[in-house]
């Protein structure tokens, strides 16, 4: 009894200590941290009141995600030591002008995502230590300079997502320490020329997603001498005037994306000597003149995508020595000057996709520059997809190009015949005539000429003369034998008659093997059938094949040699990339990769080594993926056989089960049929014609007549025969007096 009394007394004391009256933590809040009162997403409609003690150490009060609609003058009187106050994602419509009067130590105030139409003048004046103020995503339409009085220490201000339409004169003059200003997603149509006055320390300014129509006033940004990022994207800007950015000496990023800019004055970018990134994508520019970008001495990235540019001056990028990334995709370009990028020594990312390229001799210099940049490892893959002429539509400049001026033409028909023009532009070989002639001689030359023609056709498709050419048989007098050297792109080809061309195609593959000098061309045209087999947890075998070729070694001792191969393999989709190479010896067409990691995805590419040099761009058409076997499942044939046995056993079990179910169904059906046959009743009532019919029996029941007849029949009589019987129909036994006769029986 004494023990029970002691336990009850202890419980009573604990209940008193944990009662709401003595607990400093407000109801529905979390007070696990002494300095942080967490009341987010608790369904509160008012600011909770703290307990009688314990608020001296409270520095953070989180009230986000509730239903508070009003902030009174007394809500925070007992939270005088707060450093951070979060009131975001509530339904606050009004704040008393004295609501923050006791929060002199507050440094961060978050009142975004509410329904505030304005902040009372003087409400923020006591917050002298405030450094961060979030008032974003409200419905404020106007801000005044008096709102920011005494906020000398404010560093970051967010007013984005409101409905502000106008920035008046010196509206931010009190925010002398401000570094970040967000005004995006408002309704700004007009900015006073002195609106950003006194913001000499501002580093970041976001004015995107507004309704500005022009940037012409040179005084608007004149005070922002420390600005490094200016975002003016997604407005309605149509014109950028001269010298509007001339005071932004430290600006490193300028975004004018997704506007309606159709004109940029020649001096609009003057003064941006430190600009690193300029974004002009999604506008209506039609050209890039020569002097527009000359002032961007340190520019590294230019984006002119999604404009209407059809003309780019050959000197437009001549002074951009630090340009690394240039995007011109989705414009109306048909050609570019060959030396337009010759002075951009560090350019490595060039995006020319989505233009109406005409793949003729006007792009020949550009293609040569791209090839040289690729071979030196200075440029990533550039996609120039042909739009004209129709025969090359959809193909890439890396593979196809035809001239249109009659100087030189490399074109292959479906049988691999090269069509050339003489100096007068006269076509000396008609592909249709050749095909007709070939058809006539099909029976006589099938075994000798057709394989050679097919091989020559495959090799000649998309071939550049400066890199790959055929070596004719010197003994063949009907065909001129070219010297094994690189032919100049300006030299005119000698006329070749139809007879000479046909004889060239009939030469044996060994006599007309192509000579390879460019490893990139070799990768594109001669490596085929890359595959991976025999994959285990640590090894895999890579197979490939190649067309016949020779490698030419220039110099005094010129000779023809075989091309060597190497296999690049690396982990796919991982951050820590470490490519490895395995070289194949001699004429080998397979390599076994060893020491692979189990359960890892690898990308494997095969490339050629020509004269000790390789293509700097991996051959994307000759790569294959493989996934090594995981360590747990690396049991070889045993695991495979076990799986096969399990599969076979499962199929046999299913078959037996189907047979059993079928047998049961058939037995049940037979049983039902037998039962129905046994239960069927065939009523045949027989009556003798030899015995006279008694009238007194007419009123008796049929059963009685039949019984008496059977019982009174003498035993000596002969058995009844079929002719002695009369069959009565069953309707007689359906007489209504059946119940009576049954009772008599």
Automatic annotation (TrEMBL):
Residues 406-421, 442-451 have a biased composition (Basic and acidic residues). Residues 406-495 are annotated as: Disordered. Residues 355-404 form the LRRCT domain. GO terms for cellular component: extracellular matrix; extracellular space. SMART domains: LRR_SD22, LRR_TYP, LRRCT. The keyword Transmembrane applies. Keywords: Disulfide bond, Leucine-rich repeat, Membrane, Repeat, Signal, Transmembrane, Transmembrane helix. InterPro entries: Cys-rich_flank_reg_C (IPR000483), Dev_Immune_Receptor (IPR050328), FN3_dom (IPR003961), FN3_sf (IPR036116), Ig-like_fold (IPR013783), Leu-rich_rpt (IPR001611), Leu-rich_rpt_typical-subtyp (IPR003591), LRR_dom_sf (IPR032675). It holds the Pfam family LRR_8. SUPFAM superfamilies: Fibronectin type III, L domain-like. Residues 475-494 have a biased composition (Polar residues). The chain crosses the membrane at residues 643-667. The keyword Cytoplasm does not apply. PANTHER family: SLIT RELATED LEUCINE-RICH REPEAT NEURONAL PROTEIN (PTHR24373), TLR4 INTERACTOR WITH LEUCINE RICH REPEATS (PTHR24373:SF307). This is LRRCT domain-containing protein. It comes from Gouania willdenowi. The lineage of its organism: Eukaryota, Metazoa, Chordata, Craniata, Vertebrata.
């Amino acid at each position: 009894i004494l023990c029970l009394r002691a336990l009850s007394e202890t419980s009573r004391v604990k209940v008193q200590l944990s009662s709401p009256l003595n607990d400093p933590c407000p109801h529905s809040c979390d007070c696990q941290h002494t300095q942080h009162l967490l009341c987010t997403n608790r369904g509160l409609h008012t600011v909770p009141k703290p307990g009688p003690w314990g608020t001296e150490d409270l520095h953070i009060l989180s009230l986000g995600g509730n239903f508070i609609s009003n902030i009174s003058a007394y809500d925070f009187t007992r939270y005088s030591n707060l450093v951070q106050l979060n009131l975001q994602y509530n339904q606050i419509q009004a704040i008393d002008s004295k609501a923050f009067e006791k929060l002199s130590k507050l440094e961060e105030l978050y009142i975004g995502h509410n329904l505030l139409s304005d902040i009372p003048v003087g409400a923020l004046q006591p917050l002298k230590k405030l450094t961060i103020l979030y008032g974003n995503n409200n419905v404020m339409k106007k801000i005044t300079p008096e709102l920011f009085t005494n906020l000398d220490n404010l560093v970051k201000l967010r007013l984005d997502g409101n409905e502000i339409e106008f920035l008046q004169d010196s509206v931010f003059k009190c925010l002398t320490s401000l570094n970040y200003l967000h005004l995006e997603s408002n309704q700004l149509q007009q900015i006073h020329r002195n609106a950003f006055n006194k913001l000499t320390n501002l580093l970041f300014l976001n004015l995107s997603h507004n309704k500005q129509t022009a940037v012409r006033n040179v005084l608007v940004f004149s005070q922002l001498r420390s600005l490094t990022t200016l975002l003016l994207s997604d407005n309605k800007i149509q014109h950028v005037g001269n010298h509007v950015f001339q005071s932004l000496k430290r600006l490193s990023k300028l975004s004018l994306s997704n506007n309606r800019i159709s004109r940029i004055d020649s001096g609009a970018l003057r003064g941006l000597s430190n600009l690193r990134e300029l974004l002009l994508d999604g506008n209506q520019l039609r050209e890039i003149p020569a002097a527009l970008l000359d002032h961007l001495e340190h520019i590294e990235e230019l984006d002119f995508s999604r404009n209407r540019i059809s003309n780019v001056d050959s000197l437009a990028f001549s002074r951009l020595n630090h340009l690394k990334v240039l995007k011109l995709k989705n414009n109306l370009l048909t050609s570019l000057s060959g030396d337009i990028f010759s002075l951009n020594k560090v350019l490595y990312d060039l995006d020319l996709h989505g233009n109406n390229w005409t793949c003729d001799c006007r792009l020949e210099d550009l293609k040569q520059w791209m090839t040289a940049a690729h071979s030196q490892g200075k440029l990533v893959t550039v996609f120039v997809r042909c739009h004209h002429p129709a025969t090359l539509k959809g193909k890439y400049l890396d593979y196809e190009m035809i001239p249109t001026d009659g100087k030189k033409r490399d074109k292959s028909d479906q049988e691999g015949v090269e069509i050339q023009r003489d100096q007068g532009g006269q076509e000396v070989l008609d592909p249709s005539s050749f095909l007709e002639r070939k058809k006539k001689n099909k029976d006589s030359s099938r075994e000798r000429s057709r394989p050679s023609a097919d091989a020559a056709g495959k090799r000649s498709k998309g071939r550049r003369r400066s890199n790959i050419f055929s070596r004719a048989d010197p003994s063949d007098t009907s065909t001129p034998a070219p010297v094994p050297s690189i032919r100049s792109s300006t030299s005119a080809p000698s006329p070749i008659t139809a007879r000479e061309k046909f004889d060239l195609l009939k030469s044996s593959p060994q006599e007309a093997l192509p000579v390879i000098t460019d490893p990139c061309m070799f990768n594109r045209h001669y490596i085929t059938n890359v595959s991976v087999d025999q994959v285990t947890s640590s090894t895999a075998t890579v197979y490939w094949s190649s067309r016949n070729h020779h490698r030419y070694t220039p110099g005094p001792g010129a000779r023809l040699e075989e091309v060597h191969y190497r296999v690049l393999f690396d982990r796919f989709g991982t951050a820590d990339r470490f490519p490895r190479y395995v070289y194949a010896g001699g004429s080998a067409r397979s390599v076994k990769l060893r020491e692979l990691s189990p359960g890892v995805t690898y990308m494997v590419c095969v490339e050629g080594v020509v004269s000790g040099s390789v293509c700097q761009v991996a051959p994307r058409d000759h790569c294959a993926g493989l996934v090594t076997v995981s360590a747990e499942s690396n049991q070889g044939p045993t695991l495979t056989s076990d799986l096969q046995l399990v599969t076979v056993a499962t199929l046999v079990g299913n078959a037996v089960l189907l047979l059993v179910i079928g047998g049961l169904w058939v037995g049940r059906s037979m049983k039902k049929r037998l039962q129905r046959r046994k239960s069927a009743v065939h009523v045949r009532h027989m009556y003798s014609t030899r015995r006279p019919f008694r009238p007194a029996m007419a009123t008796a029941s049929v059963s009685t007549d039949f019984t008496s007849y059977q019982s009174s029949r003498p035993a000596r009589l002969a058995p009844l025969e079929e002719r002695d019987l009369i069959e009565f129909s069953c309707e007689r036994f359906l007489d209504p007096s059946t119940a009576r006769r049954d009772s008599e029986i």
